[in-house]
Automatic annotation (TrEMBL):
The lineage of its organism: Bacteria, Bacillati, Actinomycetota, Actinomycetes, Micromonosporales. InterPro entries: Amidohydro_3, Metal-dep_hydrolase_composite, Metal_Hydrolase. It comes from Catenuloplanes atrovinosus. It holds the Pfam family Amidohydro_3. This is Amidohydrolase YtcJ. Residues 42-500 form the Amidohydrolase domain.
Length: 503
């Protein structure tokens, strides 16, 4: 079917003055002004709205996002008392043997950082198991009942009898808590998240799964749920398991990476740093991988024709990953490595030397501008963890973009909300002025950048003749500058010619 969209503003480098677009099946067939529009089987009036490429979110945990959208949201809690009150209220709707899942507390934003204890959470929840992930998702508060569910947990790294668990102890309780979610609830959460993404003008997401953050069943279900034929954005999967490129391919992943952890998170003081945490002297976080492990994983990726990648936030973790990539380049040749376009997820703390290595090896930076909006600057969580001077160097988007590091923007949902216009705005209004990006460059990183971060030559992110008919229509704005100010409502999301969302 040939569908003509006319009467608006089409944001396209191919025709900056276009007001109309013709989609023929799954492809864009024509761009131009209304007066010159060809005949079509159907006409859609843009009513003065803005048509752009659909967004790509390059780092998402779909099931957890859906559970969060339907579950206990603690992002607004500002004290231990408010967390306990929210738990008490939510527990009233659960069966006696139910598990209460919540997410999003952030004690760095509280006037008093004192946390509720495992005992207090258990009392508030009527004795039920409680799992409340910190906003970074790299640690959690749990109730006494969940602490007692695994007698071996007391010996695990990161265990704390207060109920704030990190590192291995956190992984154990997370498996216990998420293991309580059945297949039907899991699939419902996946649909909830993907429909929500479509309503925000997101045409594709990169699902980051792995044995330490989801499960093989969950990962396969998310991939199967994606695509316009199911009324959802496209889903491209990254499986983060060390030395498991063959398994990643069998699971349907496009890459053996994503959340393959080289370190943890700044919020949980588990990001691996080159210098001590400012608020925990003597600690530099946790490095989970060695240079040899990075090298061997990537050699396995190359042997199976897979793109590789790692979660690395701290400068020490990023240095380990880049050293491993360097060893692969020494063996296979630098052009082979560059062609693979390996990825680093988050890439928050890096200096000129590390950025230069990313350029040299053609590494993609999959980054989350909302991290700076929420925690950057001189007075928030980064400043507390790192000190003001180091905090102001975090997330150097402009420094990476200006020297040619490919950027792909994402949310890391549910760590931060799916909010693509908010991501563009955060990159443009970075707390550190010299790290700010221009509007068009930031928009490109959240659209075309997501496609260029994928392996091979997957087309997308452009509004031009011959490109996939994947775009979004925005209400009440006539250009990008107005859109980042207004956060316009998405009137329609189209993926490969199929409308997956319509107001």
């Amino acid at each position: 079917m040939r569908i003509l969209y006319r009467g608006g503003t089409v944001y396209s480098a191919a025709d900056p003055h276009a007001t109309a677009l013709l989609a023929d099946g799954d492809r864009i067939a024509w761009l131009g002004d209304d007066a010159g529009a060809p005949a079509a089987d159907r006409v859609v009036d843009l009513d003065g709205g803005l048509l752009t490429a659909a967004f790509v979110d390059a780092h998402v945990h779909t099931t957890s996002t859906g559970l969060n959208l339907a579950g206990l949201d603690l992002t607004g809690a500002r004290s231990a008392r408010e967390v306990l009150d929210a738990v008490d209220k939510a527990a009233r709707d659960l069966p006696a043997d139910g598990v209460l899942l919540g997410h999003g507390w952030d004690e760095s934003t509280w006037e008093s950082p004192a946390l509720p204890s495992a005992h207090e959470l258990g009392v508030a929840a009527g004795g039920r198991r409680v799992y409340l992930s910190q906003v970074s998702v790299h640690s959690a508060l749990v109730s006494s009942a969940l602490l007692e569910a695994d007698p071996t947990i007391h010996a695990a790294a990161g265990f704390d009898s207060s109920g704030w668990l990190r590192v291995d102890a956190h992984h154990t309780v997370r498996d216990l808590a998420l293991g309580s979610v059945g297949p039907a609830q899991r699939r419902a959460a996946q649909r909830t998240a993907l429909r929500h993404a479509a309503r925000l003008g997101i045409g594709a997401v990169h699902e980051c799964g792995g044995p330490r953050i989801s499960s093989e069943d969950d990962f396969a279900e998310v991939l199967a749920a994606g695509g316009p034929q199911r009324g959802h954005p496209e889903v491209f999967g990254y499986w983060g398991e060390l030395g498991a490129a063959a398994k990643a391919r069998e699971l349907g992943a496009v890459g053996a990476g994503g959340d393959l952890f080289a370190d943890g998170a700044l919020g949980s003081r588990t990001a691996f740093l080159g210098h001590d945490y400012a608020d925990e002297p003597g600690s530099r976080g946790h490095g989970y991988l060695s240079v040899d492990q990075v090298r061997d994983h990537l050699l396995d990726c190359h042997a199976h024709g897979m793109q590789g990648g790692f979660h690395a936030i701290g400068d020490a973790a990023i240095a380990v990953v880049l050293a491993g990539i360097g060893e692969v380049a020494a063996r296979l040749g630098i052009e082979v490595v560059r062609a693979a376009r390996h990825r680093i997820e988050h890439a928050e703390l890096l200096d000129r030397t590390l950025i230069a290595r990313m350029v040299e090896y053609g590494v993609v930076a999959s980054v989350q501008p909302a991290f700076d909006r929420l925690w950057g600057g001189g007075t928030r969580m980064y400043a507390a963890r790192l000190g003001v001077e180091r905090a102001l160097t975090a997330n150097p988007f402009a420094a990476m973009h200006n020297v040619g590091v490919p950027l792909a923007f994402g949310s890391d949902a549910p760590v931060t909300a799916l909010d693509p216009w908010g991501g563009v705005r955060a990159a443009v209004a970075h707390h550190t002025p010299h790290s700010r990006m221009g509007v068009r460059a930031a928009f490109a990183a959240h659209t075309r950048g997501g496609w260029r971060a994928l392996p091979g030559a997957m087309a997308g992110g452009a509004v031009e003749p011959g490109a996939p008919a994947t775009f979004a229509v925005w209400d009440g704005v006539g250009g990008l500058d107005a859109a980042i100010e207004a956060t316009p409502a998405c009137r329609r999301t189209v993926v490969h010619g199929v409308t997956i969302h319509e107001e």
